[in-house]
Structures are given as C-alpha cells and as structure tokens.
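WARN no homologs supplied; continuing
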Amino acid sequence: MDEAEATQPVSPETEQAATRPVSPEIEQAATQMARDRAKAGRWDLDVAVFLFAVLIIVMILLFQGIGIEIVAPVALFGLVMVWLVGWRRGKQLYQRFYDEELSKLEQELKKTVTTAVKETVEETIEEKVQKALRERWR
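OK structure emitted
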C-alpha cells in the first residue's frame, strides 16, 4: 500500500461502522481476524528490499575498511527504520482490516436474523394454511 492509499479519506460506510454500537462478541472476533491479517501483511516486498539495501550498504562499508563505529550506527538506523515502517504498515492494515471484518460480521448477523425471521413468517403462514384446510375438511 503506498502513501497515497494510506492517506485516502475514510468512506462513509467505514465511519458508520466505527460509530454504531456492536456486540462484544462481534467486536472481539473482528479484532482477532484483523490482527491476524495485519500481522501477515506487515512485511511486504518494500520492507524486504529496504532491509536488503541496508545489508548491502553495511557490507560495502565494511569491505571499504570503514570503522565499526560508523557501520554499527548505519546498520542500527536501517534496522530501526525497517521496524518503524513495518509497525506503521501493520497499524494501517489493522485499522482497515478491522473495519472490513466488523462490516462483514455485521452483514452476516443481519443475514442470519433476516433468514430466521423469514423462516418464522413462512412457518406461521404455513401453519395458518394448514389450520384453514383442517377446518374446511371438518
């Protein structure tokens, strides 16, 4: 995900999902799924290339005879930058995945409730029809 994607405004559905009350079970499930997805996506190709570049710079500096007093801070700076980029990316992905998972779980819950209500209504109508047929036969 580039900088431009990370700074895009939040959609109205996402804002709505964040403000409406949610049951603790749904929120906990969404949190866990989002956390797992964000951990997996934290380290992407950009971070790997940057880490490889730091390794190459450190190796070049060492082969050129530059002292460890200069190479060590360069290596440390590179590792800190990799960690910060990964952490920031993980945080962004977590928020995006959390909103997606919360929305998906809420839709599944609504679908389940709608299906249950529909089945109940169909059952009620069927019972009324059966009762009317029984009365006719008597």
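The first helix runs from residue 3 to 6.
OK
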